[in-house]
Amino acid sequence: MICADLKVVRLILYLSWRDRLLCANSDMQQSRARLFKEYKEVQREKVADPDIQLVCDDTNIFKWTALIKGPSETPYEGGVFQLAFAVPEPYPLQPPQVRFLTKIFHPNVHFKTGEICLDILKNAWSPAWTLQSVCRAIIALMAHPEADSPLNCDSGNLLRSGDVRGFNSMARMYTRLAAMPKKG
Amino acid sequence: MQNQNDTVKDDAELAASISAMKGEEWGCCSVEEPSFQEDEAAKVPYVGDKEPLSSLSAEYQAGSPILLEKIKILDSQYVAIRRTRGDGNCFFRSFMFSYLEHVLESQDGAEVDRIKVNVEKCRKTLQNLGYTDFTFEDFFALFLEQLDDILQGSEESISYDELVNRSRDQSVSDYIVMFFRFVTAGEIRTRAEFFEPFITGLSNTTVDQFCKTSVEPMGEESDHIHITALSDALGVAIRVVYLDRSSCGDTGGVTVNHHDFVPVGTNDEKKEEEASAAPFITLLYRPGHYDILYPKVLDDVEK
């Protein structure tokens, strides 16, 4: 707890320092105030949502990373996946940009860039979402792939042709290769 | 990073969001491509200046005679039109300006007190629905702040010009639009049974899904469901005048239809009286878009 408090103090100091530098930009003030509230909420929710570990960059509140656990009974089970968040200045009117840093074989995630195809990150975004609830939505997407709007065509085609076993084994292999800590 | 569509120079917000993202190596699809509609919309301010209705007829010079006939009728009833940007938020934006302008001009402190009570009810509604406070409180605070600023006598009270400026400033204007979207979604969700038939008739989705995809996201267009919900939630009547090609002439002549959205629950006598008068917000609807209309003399419009 002490550690978290120190971090809050550091953030406050940092924010007031930045306010003085950039006080003209109200978009940025609004988004920063909101992100700060999310930061406090994340500290509170840590215990409630053990599948998500959301961390703010030490020096930039517009940059976050998250570690999410692959949902059980999916080929991602047992894996830990890292997400990168870049929050735009007009946040929360505009969505954060999120991508997988950990390689993942999933129809709605670009295999090379990690870009995610999810409506709430595009046209269905609203400020009612938070970084934390976006993580939950991404976990839900991992468990329920939308094969009809694929960013990863190979993965989408396997599912669309009904080859669930093929899809599962590919997804499982990449989970083992990229999302699990190496043993021994 | 720059996408194919290079005609976005005017769109300052978009440019800002792109520049904010620079330095990041995102996939090409991560930067949202502006649609044609957004390009066009960016050339019009969020809220325009008052214009005479002749500017409306000029738009339809070569158009349908029915429309020109209707505009002539409008011209006899209304002095001016104020256009809003066609960015999908035009109903909420028109409502925002029209309402705040009314309060500024009337200095109706009782109305401000009344709507504040309703705003607090909306806040409770969202809390009961399980919305996290911090996701909507900034939007509520900004709207309440405008109400206080608009009433003269306080230190921060603002002029008419300042109201126009704020309505054109994204960080105020979009926040208030979003406030209305929260209020609208809250009203629809708590009265799901009432709204469900309208929603399934319109889009064949659930009430929750409708709110998530068609009410809460910015830029999603409004129709009678949104208008009814907002009017009910805030207790503000709205008149919508329809300018379309329908010729509704049972009697042979062309008439202009309007519909008054009168909030439910106006029980006590005083409110009923108010409800029977013409709403102080009048919007002009043309298929796909709302602008603000200014009646000539308030009392004459009813006749």
The number of helical runs of chain A is 5
The main sheet of chain A orders its strands as: 1-2-3-4
CATH class designation of chain B: Mainly Alpha
Low-confidence stretches of chain B: 1-33
**Backbone CA Rg of chain B:** 20 Å
For the secondary structure, the number of strands of chain B is 6
The pLDDT mean of chain A sits at 89
User: Which strands sit side by side, in order, in the main sheet of chain B?
Assistant: 1-2-6-5-3-4
Structural class of chain B comes to alpha+beta
What does this protein look like?
- The complex is a heterodimer of chains A (184) and B (303).
- With 184 residues, chain A is an alpha+beta fold.
- Helices cover 41% and strands 12% of the residues of chain A.
- A four-stranded antiparallel beta sheet of chain A has the order 1-2-3-4, covered by helices on one side.
- In chain A, helix 1 runs antiparallel to helix 2.
- Chain B is an alpha+beta fold and 303 residues long.
- Chain B has a single domain, classed as Up-down Bundle (3 helical TM bundles of succinate and fumarate reductases), CATH 1.20.1300.
- Chain B contains 14 helices and six strands.
- A six-stranded mixed beta sheet of chain B has the order 1-2-6-5-3-4.
- In chain B, strand 5 and strand 6 form a beta hairpin.
- In chain B, helix 5 packs antiparallel against helix 8.
- Chain B is globular.
- The termini of chain B are far apart.
- Chain A: Its EC number is 2.3.2.23.
- Chain A: One of its GO terms (molecular function) is ubiquitin conjugating enzyme activity.
- Chain A: Keywords: ATP-binding, Nucleotide-binding, Peroxisome biogenesis, Transferase, Ubl conjugation pathway.
